[in-house]
Amino acid sequence: MNNVKYIVFIVILLILNAVLIYKLNSYSKGISKIRPVLNQYREGLLNFEQNFVKESENENLILDQNTKFLDIEGNLIKAKDLFKSNSVVLRYSETNCEACINAEINTLLKNNSDLKNSIVLIASYRNSRDLYVYYKEYEKKGISNIKMFLLLDKSLNIPIEKLNKPYYFCIDSNLRMSNFFIPQENKPQLSESYLQIIPISFLN
């Protein structure tokens, strides 16, 4: 009788072990499936935190009034004459990620009506002729109210320029810069939200 009980006990242990192993395997498979999602979420939070710090470093800086720009007709214009009213600026350079620039141009197309005549593109090109070429290209895409300028100086001389990424900011008639935003290429909805909020909070 004791042998029967012992055998039954062993069988029960084997069954419990089998169930435990099955559950552990299922759990591991489940974790392996959600791990990429968790990693992506973690990476997104990290990028958000890093960008927030970098954006904050530039808040309320004053743009040098003598910063020089070139318009599409080849006229020289200084910052103090360019920004006479509240504007939203997309700043980029040809050395930035091309896909990143295109993503922001497409986002501007979607939100163009809300921005009215307040959007300004400040670009850096080695060849000044590229300013006109890209202006015409963006105009054909539908950004009819575009104002685009070539930055003649090496940079705007603010910390965010060191990132070598496209970014947005707002600027008022006193040349005070605020509301900096660094887009994330894989999260275009963040750029859309930014461009939808800014007309309400800053332009108006």
CATH superfamily of the largest domain: Glutaredoxin
Secondary-structure class: alpha/beta
For the record, the CATH class of the largest domain is Alpha Beta
Domain unit count? 2
Mean pLDDT: 81
Radius of gyration over C-alpha positions, nearest whole angstrom:
27 Å
The order of strands across the largest sheet is 2-1-5-4-3-6-7
Oligomer: single chain
Counted by DSSP, the helix tally is: 6
**How far is the first residue's CA from the last residue's CA?**
89 Å
Helix content: 40-55%
Q: What name does CATH use for the topology of the largest domain?
A: Glutaredoxin
Order of helices and strands: HEEHEHHEHEEEH
What's this, in brief?
With 204 residues, the protein is of the alpha/beta class. The chain has helices at residues 2-56, 79-82, 98-110, 112-115, 129-141, 188-203; strands at residues 68-70, 76-78, 87-93, 119-124, 147-151, 167-171, 177-181. The protein folds into two domains: 1-57; 60-203, Glutaredoxin (3-Layer(aba) Sandwich), CATH 3.40.30.
Keywords:
6 helices, membrane, Glutaredoxin, 204 residues, globular, 2 domains, Thioredoxin-like_sf, alpha/beta, 7-stranded mixed sheet, disordered N terminus
Describe the secondary-structure layout.
Elements: H1 2-56, E1 68-70, E2 76-78, H2 79-82, E3 87-93, H3 98-110, H4 112-115, E4 119-124, H5 129-141, E5 147-151, E6 167-171, E7 177-181, H6 188-203
Parallel strand pairs: 3-4, 4-5
Antiparallel strand pairs: 1-2, 1-5, 3-6, 6-7
Helix pairs in contact: 3-6
